[in-house]
Amino acid sequence: MASPSHSHIIILFVLSLASASAWEVEKKTTYIVQVQHEAKPSIFPTHRHWYQSSLADTTASVIHTYQTVFHGFSARLSPAEAHKLHSLSHVITLIPEQVRQLHTTRSPQFLGLNTADRDGLLKETDFGSDLVIGVIDTGISPDSQSFNDRDLALPPPKWKGNCVAAKDFPPTSCNRKLIGARYFCAGYEATNGKMNDTLESRSPRDSDGHGTHTASIAAGRYVFPASTMGYARGMAAGMAPKARLAVYKVCWNAGCYDSDILAAFDAAVTDGVDVISLSVGGAVVPYHLDAIAVGAFGASEAGVFVSASAGNGGPGGLTVTNVAPWVTTVGAGTIDRDFPADVMLGNGKVIGGVSVYGGPGLTPSRLYPLVYAGSDGYSSSLCLEDSLDPKSVRGKIVVCDRGVNSRAAKGEVVKKAGGVGMILTNGPFDGEGLVADCHVLPATSVGAGGGDELRRYMSLASQLRSPATATIIFKGTRLGIKPAPKVASFSARGPNPESPEILKPDVIAPGLNILAAWPSTLAPSGVPSDERRSEFNILSGTSMACPHVSGLAALLKAAHPDWSPAAIRSALITTAYTLDNGGGPMLDESNANVSSVFDYGAGHVHPDSAINPGLVYDISTYDYVDFLCNSNYTSHNIRVITRNQASDCSGAKRAGHSGNLNYPSLSAVFQQYGKQHMSTHFIRTVTNVGDPNSLYTLTIAPPPGTEVTVEPDTLAFRRLGQKLNFLVRVQTRAVKLSPGSSTVKTGSIVWSDTKHTVTSPLVVTMQQPL
């Protein structure tokens, strides 16, 4: 997808200039301002002094300064002030701020991370003890046992970060496990005003729970026993139990602001983290206007692996976020554990559901009156605040539709109105994907089909003038579920909206019903009136999948200190699997159909294979510049991303098209335009990280209707670190499509020796223009 040019941005500014007076009354916006870092006059003692002087003719002040992953500052400006600032010779560009949202055990065993395995990934890497994972999120609850520092040595010598104390976060909050903690709220406060300390914690302390949960998934210590309200009882542990944690709190009640996120990236890289985990996202925009993409590029260039959540916009297509090729984009899958809570109807039929409700249950063997909240209108069907008539629901189980307010909040509405239970039904978009919640009253969630059956039953009972009744049967924790994994219904899907030549998401990891640490000051339901407390909670989202990959990346970095972020991502991609534990193709949870590469990318991560992938597809900064040039980004916009004055595209298009970035997956997009025969090629380079002397042979599974050839068809390596190239040609014929439609065909290219199997997905998309 072509990117807007620098001149187009100037035009956008100019079009807004109706008059000087009109500028001043318009609402101010926070901008991230990139400057020529090296142009600072010597008269200014620091860059911050220089930046503030640039705002001398405005009422603005500097919010954050950036010096590592980005050069510049952020400030809140009117359109007139932004235009004036943009005209200064040392200002390169202004990026309007976006507000991002959070993408919100048994998973180590499910992933094959066995502590008893003498030769396993955990033992080989000493559980990640010398690696630092930076978690950019809602902060952390340092009191959790998941963050104890028993038997840990001093932090690695490279660590330069610190622990920022506050009234509810004393210096002793940090230890040899939690070695750094900072918070960034200046961008948030620039837009919303000074925060209310009674509602939010102006410190690294987590007052939401999301950051504590994700941090413990990445690097939580072993804690036993662990459970939520008696569910998922067992040992809790993160992916890299001895890895050190550094938390950067950027998310507040009103969201996560770009200026604060970029400041966190800047601090994390300066502090010396090895991995950044970001379970935050938003709308997809061109990379030079995306603060996350810009910050992640600087981090990657510094050798820091960045994993980010794909988003929870599934199961619809084109919903994936955080799609820059230098970011590892993680979707969510299920694991082989669930929490059944079935609905038994008065007619004897049983509808499957899930729940982690842990309070007083319904009376055994009793059937309760059943009522659909939607009979009183739209708001009541969703069980929104004050939408239910107590006379209609008192003493009954209430059926509520999913949407708008949180699932647990619907239960609170039902409880306040006098209902004794709730059945939450998916809509058609949600399909059959079920998320278990810690409800405040006896409640369960059922799929769209189950919801239809419930409503049919109630309608028929009404016609027969007989009471509709039901009860909920809670069955606790069930293990060994088959098939698993499935692609979670909510997990965002491709294709990549910004760069269709780069397959996104990259991989999936466990993200449904994940047990992890929780602040002991917060209710597990997230409902303010809930007085229950738990040290662990069960949450779902690509937010939970992302830190699984962050922790795995730390383990891989510990095993291979010389690997680049791209090499680590390659190892995860080429060793991922696409079959479930029953031996069949991985399914889509939303509809039980076979899932596709746009759902899971290369597949589900497989840690024990990723540690020894045989070959990796490495990528340098210069390769990314070539990719941006071939994606029609201007030299100016590339400079915004790379901070490099020499980002010149005049000689960069050596590889011909953006799909020739040395990515482990291959994606060809053909615009038919009346053509009958179409072809393209990919150039790839693999680096030997397996056996010094090895011979790899080729297996091609061409996408249906295409002809795929690879030259050469064998790769003979004579030493570790040796690089060899190969060329992939893809030819296809036009297919009949209606205007504006497309079809997708998938295959693979597999290199294998006697020990390693290196798999690259191959995707061919045929599009018929309007």
From TrEMBL:
Q: Provide the Peptidase S8/S53 domain boundaries.
A: 128-589
Keywords in alphabetical order: Apoplast, Glycoprotein, Hydrolase, Protease, Secreted, Serine protease, Signal, Zymogen
Inhibitor I9 domain segment(s): 30-103
Gene3D superfamilies linked to this entry: 2.60.40.2310, 3.50.30.30, Peptidase S8 propeptide/proteinase inhibitor I9, Peptidase S8/S53 domain
**Entry's localization field:** Secreted, Extracellular space, Apoplast
Drop me one GO molecular function for this one: serine-type endopeptidase activity
InterPro entries linked to this entry: PA_dom_sf, PA_domain, Peptidase_S8/S53_dom, Peptidase_S8/S53_dom_sf, Peptidase_S8_Asp-AS, Peptidase_S8_Ser-AS, Peptidase_S8_subtilisin-rel, Peptidases_S8_3
A Pfam family that the UniProt record links to this protein: fn3_6
Q: Which domain of life is it from?
A: Eukaryota
- Hey, what's the signal peptide range on this chain? 1-22
Q: Which PROSITE patterns match?
A: SUBTILASE, SUBTILASE_ASP, SUBTILASE_SER
Q: Which residue ranges does the record assign to the PA domain? A: 368-454
Q: Which residues form the active site?
A: D137, H210, S543
Q: Where is the Subtilisin-like protease fibronectin type-III domain?
A: 660-764
According to its UniProt entry, one GO biological process term is: system development
Q: Name one GO cellular component term.
A: apoplast
Query: Carries keyword Secreted?
Result: yes
Q: What does this protein do?
A: Required for arbuscular mycorrhiza (AM) development during AM symbiosis with AM fungi (e.g. Glomeromycota intraradices).
Instruction: Give the similarity note.
Output: Belongs to the peptidase S8 family.
Protein name per Swiss-Prot or TrEMBL? Subtilisin-like protease
